[in-house]
Each structure stands twice: as C-alpha cells, then as structure tokens.
Amino acid sequence: MRTRLNPMQQVLVAAGRPLPQLTDPLDIELRVSAFAGLFARDEGFWEDVVEHLDEVPSRRSAALLTALGHLLAGRPGQWARDAARQQRAPRWDLTTLTFGECWIGDRSIDAGYLTLMCCYAYGDDRHAMVFMIDEISGSLTRHAFLTRQVEEALGKLQEQVRLEPITPEAAHWLLGRSYDRFERRPGLGVSEDVHQTRLLVRRRIALALGLGQVGTKAGSTASTS
C-alpha cells in the first residue's frame, strides 16, 4: 500500500515534475528552495513525501529526492539521500558547486545595513547573492538578491558602499548567525526573496562552514564541493 499524501504534499510532489528536463543546477536549487522552504523543518511532512517518492520510482521521483537531499537539513535530507541512491541520477549535478570571492560593506552609519556579496559557480557559470543585513534590528537579513550578472552587480554595489574582501567562511558565518535569528522568529518582516532562497542559502552556509552533507547523485557515492 502506497503512502498517502495530504493535499499540500501532493502539490509539492507535482511541483517537481519539470525537474528531470532541466539542466541548470542553479535553476534546480531555486525552484526547490522556493516550493519546499515553507515545510523545511516539518519532519513528518518529509517522511511521508520521501516514502511516497521511494515507493514510486520515476525520473521525477529521482530528481526531487536528489534535490531534497541537497537542500534539506537533518534527518529529512538524509532520508532523501538514502532514497535517491536507489534511483537513477538526474542529468544535473549539484555537487559541483564552488565558492568564489566574497565582499562586505558596512553602511551602519547612514543606513543601518551590513552588505554581503558572495560569489559561487557551477563549472564556468557564475552567480552571486547580495544580502542586506539589518544591523539595527538584530542583524536580520532583510533582502537576498540573486544574480547571474556578477560583475555588473559588483560594480553597482561598489558605487553605493565601500567593499572589502572577506573569506567565504567568515561571510557565511555572519549569514548563519543572521538566518538563525530569522528562523527563530519567522514572522519578522523580510523580503519574499529571503523566504524563496532560504534553503539554497542554508545549503551554502553549511558547506562553507564544513557542517553540511553536500548530498549525492542517485546511484553514486557521496562527493564534496
């Protein structure tokens, strides 16, 4: 007998339908982070979803399990990784994520914001995220902007704030502290982009600090970035 899903679980599984046809790892991260983030900390929700996907092998099941294995923390992520190993790997590979330069700019004097820009890449395809951390309201990340136009974004940011280099470890430690506060008080006002990219950012925080399991491609051994 197959695991029965509630309506929200059914919607989430249906949202994974396009994943096997996609080829861009960042697009995968964005899509799954956007529709899975709301339930990220609900173990019971994910236990049923993973069991259902495990019971119904398909390209969609394999792709969704693989993505969830990368983006979910704790036991749900481990459940998804274990189930993904039993199915065929998707075409894209999230284990190839690498970290690039990071910059910090302090606008606390005139605006009350700490600005972080962090660069990443999948192969030769670079992207960056710009974070606005509200220093006045407890170092909460208010905005999280993702762009593939890395040099253009860096140039515009340099026109607004004096940037200094910072190591990826230090940058993501600051982000981790900020996101911890956000998750303890999810009702605080933050932009929609913070919610939609939350799992994607959390994955980068864990990897930068050496705390996270990168995940595995279905049918392959574990790999680290």
Give a structural overview.
By secondary structure, the chain is α+β, with helices and mostly antiparallel strands. The protein is built from 9 helices and 5 strands, in the order αααααββββαβααα. It has a 5-stranded antiparallel sheet. A hairpin with a 2-residue loop joins strand 2 (113-122) and strand 3 (125-134). Helix 2 packs across helix 4 (59-71), helix 4 packs antiparallel against helix 5 and helix 7 (168-184) packs across helix 9. Residues 213-225 have low confidence and may be disordered.
Supply the key terms:
disordered C terminus, 225 residues, globular, five-stranded antiparallel sheet, alpha+beta
Question: In a few lines, what is going on in this structure?
Answer:
This protein is of the alpha+beta class.
Sheet with most strands: 5 strands, antiparallel
Helix content: 40-55%
Q: What would the average pLDDT be, to the nearest integer?
A: 88
Count of runs of 4 or more consecutive helical residues = 9
**What class do helices, strands and sheet pairing give?**
alpha+beta
* Amino- and carboxy-terminal Cα gap: 38 Å
Low-confidence stretches: 213-225
- Helix-strand pattern, N to C? HHHHHEEEEHEHHH
Write the layout of secondary structure elements.
Elements: H1 7-15, H2 25-36, H3 43-55, H4 59-71, H5 74-84, E1 97-107, E2 113-122, E3 125-134, E4 140-147, H6 150-160, E5 164-166, H7 168-184, H8 192-196, H9 198-208
Helix pairs in contact: 2-4, 3-5, 4-5, 7-9
